[in-house]
Structures
1.
Amino acid sequence: MSFCDTIWEDVAPLRRAILDHPFLNALADGTLEAESFRHYIVQDSLYLAEYARVLALAAARAPSAAGRLEFSDGAKVAVQVEEALHQAFFAQFGVTAEMAHGSEPTPACLGYTSYLSALAATRSYEELIAGILPCFWVYWEVGCNVKPRAVSPNPYAAWIDTYAAPSFGEATRRVCALVDEAAAAASPATRAGMATAFRNATRFEWMFWDSAWHRAGWPI
Ligand SMILES: Cc1ncc(CO)c(N)n1
């Protein structure tokens, strides 16, 4: 089993909880309230802007040209998705520029992006890219899981198609290969840190859905 296969198995209960989350069930059957999706898409827009910065930091630190290319390309795609997909959804679901720009990141969003930035600032490159991976892999699994059970037509079809797209699966596989390569050359302590980063980022993925479902804000 590769390192990625092992850490993916380790988070199987978290992945199950994500696939069973009421937000994704409602998104698949088309009953998700527009207000919940608006909450999600505004937060995701804030998330992707920060995620793109983290990918750029990973690109800067990657020891191989393959890593520099993958993460700099990922940084570019994250900004493009933010600009294209999200702007289209903003229009479709009536999110105004003021609503988008006036929104603060929720605890789940700020927690996730701050965690990834902290990995970039204070942990090894290996731990950083293990923390980056769930964003790809969990969404790819979600896209592939939701697409066959989604009603047609579905108001969220463009979102589902983005993450079930073969090109997104290929990007996920390439990032997995970089993580496996980094793990193979890493010490046991670093590998343990990588598994922790991967698990924590996967937890944040669940929290992101849950926060959108409850339209959570700051408690104070
Ligand atoms: C929170 C989150 N995780 C992963 C992705 C996939 O890019 C996304 N758009 N948002």
2.
Amino acid sequence: MRRMVNTGGKFEIKLFVQESSSPKWIQSFKYEFFPALGWSDSLTSCRKKVKNVSQEIDAYFEQLIEEHISKNHQQDDTRKDFLDLLLQGQKEYNTSRDNIKALLMNIFVGGTDTPAITIEWAMAELIKKPDTMKKAQEEVRRVVGSKPNVQEEEHVHQTEYLRCVLKETLRLHPPISMLLPCVSYTNTKVNGYDIPANTRVHINAHAIQRDPDLWDKAEEFIPERFSTDNIDFRCQDCKFMPFGAGRRTCHGMSFSLPVVELVIANLLFHFDWKLPSDVKELDMGEVPDMNANGRLPLHLVSIICSS
Ligand code: HEM
């Protein structure tokens, strides 16, 4: 969510994720997916651009690390952040500066767009289904009650329907639609297919989570399916895996779930929502990319709830 503008008495919250998502040249980086076409990346100057961006990011991480090293000389233990702890454990775990930069990169890449994309899709699905929006809103407003305060973390465990909304959003729109690639170092057979050693295998969570053999009315947004099925985020039977599975599963899951829920709950608690008057039908198309961004940024009009 990047912008909020006042449109004459009403606030229009523009939910954007597009600005920070991959620029077009990254989408056209062929080598990663089709090594045989790698030569074309040089023609489109893709390699040069990737190198420039890597250098920029590297310089930024260097600066962060240096700042933290000098800051640490003055600071007490209670104020340490993630990078402070990584630096502190550097000797004990024998981590190089490159290891630390790689970990920072993981957190930046894995943890920035994903919650924003989830929130945007949840709001898009809810605006398309006013009854579902109303049900979620009533639950949030009932749980928070008359307290003047906004939805807080303690309320998250009580908003069960909102959790179903979140699960259904992540089923239809997993922000990382293709899970991290797996490589088997020996010849393997999966589902009758021969996978030669050192082949990179991508798991398409997006397709699995919309498979009509696994899901009733697979293309429809029906949060209620999760209130009866009791399916967890942790991919027990490999049909629901928005946070991945196995050793490469998301490290940020337990942190991001309450954060995303709190943001959506606050949006539902404080505002009623509608489409801008010039939008008749919401475009629910996705960009064909590793991240399931919407084709268009979501623009919604919020009306401050006075009750
Ligand atoms: C709604 C929010 C999020 C979703 C849906 C999500 C989803 C995922 C998925 C699908 C993977 C790949 C797992 C696999 O291939 O098996 C992943 C990896 C990862 N996620 Fe998340 N993620 C979210 C938020 C976050 C946050 C907030 C952080 C950090 C603060 C984070 C950190 C990571 C890291 C570090 C990895 C890489 C793990 C590895 O390299 O082995 N994620 N995430």
